């Protein structure tokens, strides 16, 4: 009898014995898997680029088994790393076929597809009782987000998490503690800024059409990639992150970085939905892709004893917010992950926000970066008055999986991540139309522009996708 066990045999025998397993992977390092009955069976939809990063982080917690891999282009270069990491996981190109064939073996799904493709997968997963981790923003239209929230509410036992990972890190707990202690109070203005180069910078804003059709890669199901959106001819500038550039597919810098910069302020200042959104400055506005620079003003009314508040969003290389006296150095938190295009490039002002309260001003970065009181003299004066900030009990990925097991509550469930995503959907409408809108947060309607109001829902879904729009 062979005394040497294969890796697969060792894992299966250890699982039958009910023990934890320590695995070593050149990409992930050592991963200690929980006992089999303590792991969530996770199916992963969208396995390249950011989707692959999500899978690695979820698996590193040791709290899940990867039971299926699904991607519209299983033969693409960007999907190969995850396939090699989990060679025994069944592979699918169509998420619907995956659910049909092995749905009874799936507890939860991770969704790392383009923004517009989150919706149908999420709606089907929740209908089937599967817990959902979906990247931010939740969807690319206001009403798709609304339906996702309604669907989650209809299935209260289903755990949901929107994947803005900083919402489980230091800034989340600091902002909450400082707000509860009255350190952050009477906020009337927030200037949020993201001034790094974007994929579409350098494109011609006078473009009069979409790029010319190209041959579809043999391994890609182009029709499925588009899902419920209107038909487009394939072009390499639509896929692999390039989709972020186009109004038809992505949500630009605001949808990409807004959740990492404004999430805690939105939640703990109870912002909800704005009553006015104004694209006050757009450089390089056109009908197809996002402007080179944007300044968008969101007005939020008084709420729960807090004053009205304006959030001013600035993107573009030179479109910086006013810098207050005593701001200091614009530091870059090393924990902020780089954009999918590569390394963080030096910029005039790193991604973040400036928060103006009645008595105090704060500066902060993105993701989990903590706030600082400015100027320095004021920070020293306040040092002894600051409350203790608890440490995070789990990162965003472990928080989701522990919630699936009933051990924690997700910090970015759809009732929290949904309204935040809708704020960005409203901002994108003003960017697209180069306009100012008046919004009714109760009726959830744009009341001053019928065409803008129609964009809350966007184009009707293609035939075959209508069923996902039913709650």
Please, could you describe this protein's structure?
- The protein is α/β, with parallel strands linked by helices and 471 residues long.
- It folds into two domains: 7-163, NAD(P)-binding Rossmann-like Domain (Rossmann fold, 3-Layer(aba) Sandwich), CATH 3.40.50; 167-210 and 252-392 and 423-469, Dihydrodipicolinate Reductase, domain 2 (2-Layer Sandwich), CATH 3.30.360.
- The chain is built from 13 helices and 17 strands.
- It has helices at residues 7-17, 50-60, 80-85, 95-102, 118-127, 142-154, 170-180, 222-226, 252-268, 376-382, 396-404, 414-433, 450-454, and strands at residues 21-25, 29-33, 40-45, 64-70, 91-92, 108-111, 131-134, 160-162, 189-194, 276-283, 293-300, 309-315, 352-356, 361-364, 372-374, 436-440, 445-446.
- A nine-stranded mixed β-sheet has the order 15-14-13-9-12-11-10-16-17.
- The longest helix has 20 residues, at 414-433.
- It is globular and about 60 Å long.
- The termini are far apart.
- Mean pLDDT is 92; it is low at 1-18.
Features:
single chain; alpha/beta; Rossmann fold; 9-stranded mixed β-sheet; 6-stranded parallel β-sheet; globular
